[in-house]
Amino acid sequence: MRFPLFGFVLFPFFLFSQDFENTNSIDVSVFKGNIMPHTQDLGHLITDHPYGFMVSFSKQTHGKKEWHRAYNFPDFGGYFMYQDYKNEFLGTNYAAGAHYNFYFLNRKLQFKLAQGITYNTNPYDKVTNSKNKAFGSKLDANINFALNYKKENLIENIGFQAGLLFTHSSNGRIKSPNSGINSYVLNVGLNYNFDKKETQNNSTISDTTCYKETIKYNFVAKTGVNESPIINSGQYPFYHLGFYADKRLNRKSAIQLGTELFLTQSLKEYIKYRSISSFEKYIDPNTDYKRVGIFVGHELFINKLSIETQVGYYVYKPFKEDLDIYNRLGLKYYLTDKVFVVGGLKTHLFVAEAFEFGVGVRL
Known about the structure:
By secondary structure, the chain is mainly beta. It has three helices and 16 strands.
């Protein structure tokens, strides 16, 4: 089943398409760096320094909408990335997706947030490539964070940027194996403005809107499919049900506190498998697979789109194999003031468990 993966990737394109009228800038960067050894089964896959390049097409904003001014005139658009892991088992990745660029320090410091889909040339195969435990499928999700020094129009329309790029590629354990690859690299490149730069609308009229709200209560239901760590054990649906309170503090931020119930069918099957195969420690096949967590979170409001980050702790987890702490990075889009859709990645530190997609209400 590929719907969750495609949904995760197409979600930002749906958002950006609403006012993405034309591309008026491009930047090209080359990069080289290291792979993070976040699991024990990656040691034989880290044999050299990965390298590649990224091309980004951007629509520059100039203050025509309120959120442009609120976020210091960000850019948004699409990207293409090529990455060679310099390992015969890992192969190479070709990624494409959507991005936001945010600016700080008089627009000299750029933070890029990008996500999309990546194609791996040499995924796991039981016969021909059994050593690739990082990618269990040809199509994976790609998430990138970059922090760059950027100087535009250094020589006429040509500028320069350089900094640090973090990349993540995995399929969210839709299919095992799925250790995924996290890499951190140095990047350097050039940017070019196709159009004459518009004057930014730095309005001196202050925004008098009061964004503070009373505590709101949210109900959200998420679903998808994933597979246990056992290769070819089968894909099963999961259901994550959450309730949380949020308090909006200002134009950009709200804090969250809540609880959620995890009903993960693949974990239920994994417990049965471990009860038979584990010789070091007895596991009761009737161990409850359900988990209950409590979490704190932050919501960053952009326009109708917001970015959620959450950290949780399992207060009920009879099967003890996973970490007690989990985290989540996701996107939320408000269809109305009270109804929203969500998509995100749930992980235990750097190890992905599931791509979640759902709908919720905020009352």
